[in-house]
Amino acid sequence: MRDLLSINDLTKDDALEILDTAVQLSALSDSSNRKFPTLRGRTVVNLFFEDSTRTRISFEAAAKRLSADVINFSAKGSSVSKGESLKDTALTLQAMGADAVIIRHGSSGAPAQLARKRWIDGAVINAGDGTHEHPTQALLDAFTIRRHLKKDQGDLAGLKIAVVGDVLHSRVARSNVLLLQKLGATVVLVAPPTLLPVGVEHWGAQVSFAIDDVIAECDAVMMLRVQKERMEDLFFPSEREYARNFGLNAARIAEMKESAIVMHPGPMNRGLEITAEGADSKRSVIVEQVANGVSVRMAVLYLLIGGATSRDLAAQIGDQS
Amino acid sequence: MNSWLIKNARDLQGKDVDLAVANGQIVHVKELHHQYSELDAKGLTLMPGLVDLHTHLREPGREDAETVFTASQAAVAGGYTAISAMPNTLPVADTAGVVEQVYRLGKSHGLCDVFPIGAVTVGQKGEQLAELVAMNQSEARVRIFSDDGYCVADPLVMRRALEYVKLFDGVVAQHAQDPRLTENAQMNEGEVSARLGLKGWPAVAEEAIIARDILLAEHVNSRLHICHLTTAGGVELVRQAKLRGVKVTAEVTPHHLLLTDEMAATYDATYKVNPPLRTESDVQALRRGLADGTIDIVATDHAPHPQEAKDCEWSAAAFGMLGLETAFSICYLAIVKSGLLSLADLWQRMSIAPAKLARYENHGELTVGRTANFVLVDLNKSWKVDAGALKSKSKNTPYDGMELPAVVEKTFHNGVLVYDRENQGREGA
Amino acid sequence: MSVVLNAAEIARALRRIAHEILEKNHGSSEVILLGIPTRGVVIAQRLAQEILGIENAAVALGTLDITMYRDDLRMRAPRPLTPTQLPKTGIDAKHVVLVDDVFFSGRTVRAALDALTELGRPKTVQLAVLIDRGHRELPIRADFVGKNIPTAKAESVKVNLSEIDGSDEVKIEGRSM
Known about the structure:
Largest sheet of chain A: 5 strands, parallel
Number of strands of chain A: 9
Strand order of the largest sheet of chain A: 7-6-5-8-9
CATH class of the largest domain in chain A: Alpha Beta
Distance between the termini of chain C: 9 Å
CATH topology of chain C: Rossmann fold
Distance between the termini of chain A: 26 Å
CATH topology of the largest domain in chain A: Rossmann fold
CATH architecture of chain C: 3-Layer(aba) Sandwich
Number of helices of chain C: 4
Strand content of chain C: 25-35%
Oligomer: heterotrimer
Radius of gyration of chain C: 16 Å
Strand order of the largest sheet of chain C: 3-2-4-5-6
Mean pLDDT of chain C: 94
Radius of gyration of chain A: 20 Å
Low-confidence stretches of chain A: none
CATH architecture of the largest domain in chain A: 3-Layer(aba) Sandwich
CATH superfamily of the largest domain in chain A: Aspartate/ornithine carbamoyltransferase
Shape of chain A: globular
């Protein structure tokens, strides 16, 4: 594994290796607020073309706990039309010798372009691209589900997980559908038809238009953020109607299985896709997801640049010649 | 030296043929007097020059991407002796002045005929008709009008345009794309767009406009041309309309005959094109449509873009790909090699039919007394596309590195050898 | 390939080391045995068994994964992590005995010392190994050694333990006869 661009880059074994590594790292991190020397001398760049404080600080904490040097590069609105191009930004980072570039970009496929065109030698980690994917979010979600429902062991076979809300525009949903199914879980997508992509039938997930039809049989319910602007684009008539039909409220939580958990990638729109009772209920693992995010991202960084990288190998070949 | 005797060539049917050229025209061999060059064309196939009705030359305005001269060079290297300059330039070709400028540029370079297409509406804004008659009566004698790049979305504007061009036997070439259904759209809407998280461009956005315009053309009994058809549903709409006797014609691009939306999975913006690459079943329907005559012609939609417009995020990249230099090889691969059409039939759709559709009198035919616009092609050889070696000023070809069949060896325009592969360039003129 | 220790010899060596640990630390009450994965963990367990037999008292036992502290991480693909498990008491003010199978360059022990620094402040840190094959690259020595086996650098020492490998045996591989 050289880059992490999409869940499709991972085999099931790769995914389990990341989760198992994260389990060890989270145990070590729990025992004390420790720092590992593992990535000492490695440079990790947070290249964020979109604001996302929580994802950025999660990666930053992960990299720092592994002793990497972290450079935060915020390049909002950068594109051909406005300011520096992605390519020139990448070449700048390349000149700085980045071992890993963590990229968040509003355009689907931007991380894949960085990696494919090899504007950067270092590992490229997708921290969310447009409406495409957000693989580390899916990994931390799978980690959280496995911790609660599988005691940190094995895959997710036998579990049923609902992903509720704006599937059409959600990179979190795309990565989760791929990963959770890869790990053996059954995924059911719950959304109004306007917020499901044409072609969703090829995803292998079940589709439902009614949260009440599925909530009682799910082991985990993952609520997606719904942006209020979507209303203006005619995806749903009003916030009230959306919340009534697809929001997670106390009555729906009461229908859930004893062991079932409530998840949300954040940031939440309380009152729209989730009520305060939903967000703060005993079933909610939303805060835990944040802590697990650091462990999972440490695992990803360790596995991508903790061992010999292509840059190291190139340097060795260079030494020999 | 404008007199030639081409010997030992084969014609489209495979028969041996000699061709004599004097003073830019095809003549009887016995009319050739001293002072002519003899060319042994053994192993080569002799055909009328290709005619493109859909070319983006970028001049005036974006000379960094292409100029009339470089597009002409690309055209003759691809076997074209006539190309049609789409009006989406800066300024837009919506007045007699701009179309004459482009026409004269083409003429001064003298490599191939450059026939401007005029904008349907002022500034291609879709609101007010441009002065179509003035463009038609100009030196450029514009016969085709299109807002290509934009759809004439307003049904009333489209109706008036269709009616108005009857004044001079013109034709409106529609870029069929419902703007509301394709806001910020990036690629064909379907399985692949859902997976890649790129905003979908539904087939219905194209088909709804085609259906509407067919009904309008039928109602006002005018000529309608559908640019770059890409969907199976669109092919069916045109087929049914033709059966009813509607005066509708349609074109397909070489890339829509070969490439599918799966190419977008690379996020390589070279494959970003308007209208988007569709599915395999659409490709098959387009090939069948071209074979059975539903689709009348192949047009390149040659759309040069500078590297920076493609070497960027998919959503920020420009739409379009090069076409002129690869069109014949791609169509030969997709249509002739696959057994759908004979070489003669393909040539009909790339030369004779477009010349007839656009009323380009000097193209598409090789009989005594006609202008000598023809090419010599080696069908037994293949060539490897090298984007860097293309004549076009831009390099945004999706076929870089591909080995393609059929090599254009020589192109003659007005009896002058304007492209000779051996000498990689221009002679005479 | 030649066998340098058989099962009985391994057992005797470990029994002796157990005695030496008890002797040096005046019993087992302040001792923590920390096995370094993979085979160091098994050897630490066996030493704990021996100590239990001798003293009739359980000795504190744990494992210490040193992967994240290795200095050769960049020379090969990333290694899988294994659990670090410490006794509930922690390691502060204890006599920590690091346990490994083969003592070679000393780099593993260096990594273990770094890892320990992050976990607390032991009173002493000692080292018990089944085999010391020489070729130290760092100024580190063992406190308890099962057997010293002179080797050539190109040779490799293979420790088989029944819990992992099915039988008890120490072999040298790659020795030219």
